[in-house]
Amino acid sequence: MKMAILISLCFCAHSVHSIPIKQHNDASSAHAMNQSSLFENMDLVGLLKTHQKSEIDTFQRKYGSMTIAPISMDKINVHETAETIQSKQLVPELFHKFGPYIQKLELNYDQLSSRGDRKQIHKLIVTHCADSLISLSLFRWDVTILQSLNVLKKVENLTLTGYVKVSKGYFNFNYFHTQKKLNEIFPGLRRLSLDYALGAEPIFDVEFSQLEQVKITSTRPLTDGNSFSNTKLALKKLFSKNPQIRNFIYVYCDSLEILKMARDYLPNLETLQVNVLRLNDEFDGEKIYFANLKKAYLWSDEVALSQFLAFDQLDELYMTCAADECVNFIEQNKNMRNIFIAGNSLNDEDILEIGEEITYLDELFIATTAEIDTHTIIDYYKFNSNVKNFRLEIIDSQFFNSRMEGETLEKHFE
After folding, report:
1. In angstroms, how far is CA 34 from the centroid of its own chain?
2. Looking at the predicted structure, is the pLDDT value of residue 408 above 50?
3. Is the CB of residue 38 less than 8 Å from the CB of residue 55?
4. Nearest one of 280, 285, 274 to 307, comparing CA atoms
5. Which of 88, 190, 394, 402 has a CB 3.0–4.6 Å from the CB of 156, allowing a cystine?
6. Among 276, 270, 229, which residue's Cα sits nearest to residue 253?
7. How far apart are CA 318 and CA 342, in angstroms?
8. What is the dihedral sign for C-alpha 141, 146, 152, 157?
9. Residues near 82 by Cβ (< 8 Å), separated by ≥ 6?
């Protein structure tokens, strides 16, 4: 089998796609096209005021996959377009007309400060979006907000950020145990995203039959002891009740303790994504060993992850770090078949060392800021004549620092 080699010296170009246009001579077809074009140029206010059958198709094409974020009863944001739309009673009209086609919603309760607005929007969601809503993001939430939502059985993606603790005078936590639990509100949940601003609430002490991914983002330093203790307690409850979780994402990882909890309570974990800026707890000398992990996304600027993490069955690696750390990690995980690495200043010697360490790779993709000699490619092939795909890219250091992070590395190599 021949080895496929691609050397790319620049990848800042943008693809330009041409769309063929079919000419219509029929007058009715032309009229239909004009109507469609008219709707395509309308924002939500315009679509709400029309009374044509194709307005629903237009809404689904333009807004069906976008995140709708109500700010008040009269204003919304559309995130993907950075569009702010305002009209009297816009939100009620939107939900009444297009609610069954809205798939993504975000609610910021700092903006929705009126208790009446919150109550009305929750009612609109449950009434009109219960069978369509797939993704829901709640910012500056509390447990009473969750309690005011009825069952949303189709929601698969839930993001809870900016937790606000409710005072005891306003809410009795014991009362919560007799009310709806998180898995009752979102029975179809598959992906849950949280941040460090968590309270030690019983809402996380539940089983989700379909939960497969948890994402935690460190938004507060560990010096905020109460916040971190509550986060650990909430995650421990969540992990212990849901050992079926297969994917764990830890953004801005600053604690080995949470990684240890993932190891201890998630025996079925297959994919780990860790973005490390710094570690605020001391390493006790014992590596965090993941026995069944198949795929890892690891990003670190200064922390040597090879000192802390160990794997047994790792098959696929996406890693961005210093050149020597890339090599060290590969030396310690020789069973891998697919390696995608971006190492600042990975040089000829590093590439040849990788070739000597693992001689049965299916894929090796390397991005580096260093100039690589053509003979290095030839010499590498001597070690790995059976490699199915070898790709080398010489990249700009500015691009490397800003883009080669997390899942971006995987998408770049597609």
Report:
1. 39
2. yes
3. no
4. 285
5. 190
6. 276
7. 8
8. positive
9. none
One-letter amino acid at 319 equals M
3-class DSSP state of 369: coil
Unique residue bearing structure tokens 């798939």: 103
What amino acid occupies position 17? H
Q: Which residues contact 321 (CB under 8 A, 6 or more apart)?
A: 298, 299, 300, 301, 305, 329, 343
Instruction: Considering only residues 81 and 185, tell me which one the structure prediction assigns the higher pLDDT.
Output: 185
Q: What are residue 376's phi and psi, to 5 degrees? A: -65, -40
The CA distance from 85 to 80, in Å, is 13
List residues bridging with 105 in a β-sheet. 68, 136
Distance CA 75, CA 91 (A): 7
Paired sense of beta strands 104-108 and 83-86, if any: unpaired
Measured between alpha carbons, how far is 322 from 307 in angstroms, rounded to an integer? 14
Taking the C-alpha atoms of residue 227 and residue 194, their distance in angstroms, rounded to an integer, is 13
Q: Name the band, by pLDDT with cuts 50, 70 and 90, for residue 175.
A: very low
- Left, alpha or beta for 262 (phi > 0: left; psi -120 to 50: alpha)? alpha
Residues 6+ apart with CB under 8 A from 310: 287, 288, 289, 290, 332
Residue 96 one-letter amino acid: H
Distances (CA, A) of 101 to 152, 195, 311: 14, 29, 44
Residue in the structure block whose two tokens are 């109550």: 119
- pLDDT confidence tier of residue 165, bands split at 50, 70 and 90: low
Nearest to 134 by CA among 89, 80, 67, 218: 67
For residue 156, what are the contacts with CB-CB under 8 A and spacing of at least 6?
Answer: 134, 135, 188, 189, 190, 191, 210
Instruction: Determine the residue type at 194.
Output: L
- The model's pTM is 0.81
The residue to which tokens 């903006």 are assigned? 111
**What are the Cα distances from residue 9, in Å, to 392, 400, 412?**
9, 13, 14
Crossing angle, helix 54-63 and helix 27-40, to 10 degrees? 50
- Point out the least confidently predicted range of 11-15, 97-101, 198-202, 266-270: 11-15
Section 362-373 average pLDDT: 87
